[in-house]
Amino acid sequence: MRREDRRVVAVLGFLHGVVHANILSIPVFLLAWKTEFGVDDVTLGLLAAAGYGLYGLGAVPFGFLADRGTPARLLLLCAGGIAVSMLGVAASPSVPLLAVSLGALGLFSGIYHPTGLSIISRAVAEQGRGMGWHGMGGSLGIASGPAYVGTALAVGWSWRPVASLLVIPGLVALALLTFARLPTKISTDVPATSRAHVGLLSRSFAFILLVYMFAGFAYQGGLTFLPRFVGAGFFALALALGAIGQVLSGRLADRRQPQRILFPLSAAAASLLVLLAILPLGGAFIAAALVFGFLLFSLEPLQNTLVTGEVPRPLRGLGFGFTFSSVFGIGSLGAALAGWLLARNANAILFLVLGGCLAASGAFSLGVRRAVP
To answer: Which CATH number does the domain housing residue 350 bear?
Structure first.
């Protein structure tokens, strides 16, 4: 990979990790919020959905702006907004204000994916490898955030100072973006004409949205309450294994037809969710959950290259905005569904439903035909 590409991927990978470290710490904080605020599982699921939902829904307008403005400025807003939102989370005195703070966290975090991924898809020559290393940065954040929160809570810290310290990575990302020489404007070769918009109205792009949406149900529903079954430590380990999966699948994503790899990997991850529905809590359950974490995050680089293979360069920001709105916005319903089913002690049904969603996601990938070389 070229030196300038490595610099871009490194800075974006760090911010990617910051975004996910905060968002994926929510499942671990739920345990503390349940105790402090005395709420049930349905309310906890809705709290998580407040953050996840705006995380996804904000991706479309920010993706539109990323195609027409200066993406580096949007990333500064992302990092600064995350830091301020985490202060709001730490200071929230009630469930409604906590929901507002989580919504703000999701909204500012939602700037990242359509903006950062559009930069990589336009500026980095080896897109699959770039997506893989960039995804590894996200997965390391996914693992380190919950690991930090889980450890701090386990040794007796109050959740409020734990949340306050999560402001620091956002400020570090803000400093890196200020001094790093990221591309201020990205050339798109051709103007965003009505002809280019065909890429967002195609049959293949509709299938891509379904790939992301059903994967989002499994992602949000599967991860939100996983710490309850395996503990915060094994939850963090499962997410760390996802970092390895990101890099390995990033290399596979540079092949001509990544959807042929995405389908069997999705089916394998779905089968592990079925196992979680059958297995009793214990060593075998934890082992299956760890492998599930590895496979779940290995899907991301392959899914992202579906977008770059279908959407024209002038519309990459908007294209990623729609896909991440699908996976996190609509997909946030998976968190609410998980809370509702767990409140009724329907654990097995939950994992079976989520397994079916992930299998459907992989099946829809077979309908995608790459249109952009």
So the answer is: 1.20.1250.20
Q: What is the pLDDT of residues 115-168, one digit of tens each?
A: 887 788 777 766 667 777 777 788 788 778 888 998 999 899 999 999 999 999
Q: How many domains does the chain have?
A: 1
Which pair of structure tokens corresponds to residue 234? 């094994």
pLDDT at 210: 93
In a domain, 176, yes or no: yes
Q: What is the largest CA-CA distance in the chain?
A: 58
pTM confidence score: 0.76
- Give the distance, in angstroms, between the CA of residue 82 and the centroid of all CA atoms in the same chain: 15
Q: How far is CA 216 from CA 24, 127, 222, in A?
A: 14, 23, 9
Q: Residue 258, SS3? A: coil
Q: Mean of the per-residue pLDDT values for the chain?
A: 84
Distance CA 147, CA 286 (A): 16
Residue 179, Cβ density class (10 Å: 0-12 exposed, 13-18 middle, ≥19 buried) = exposed
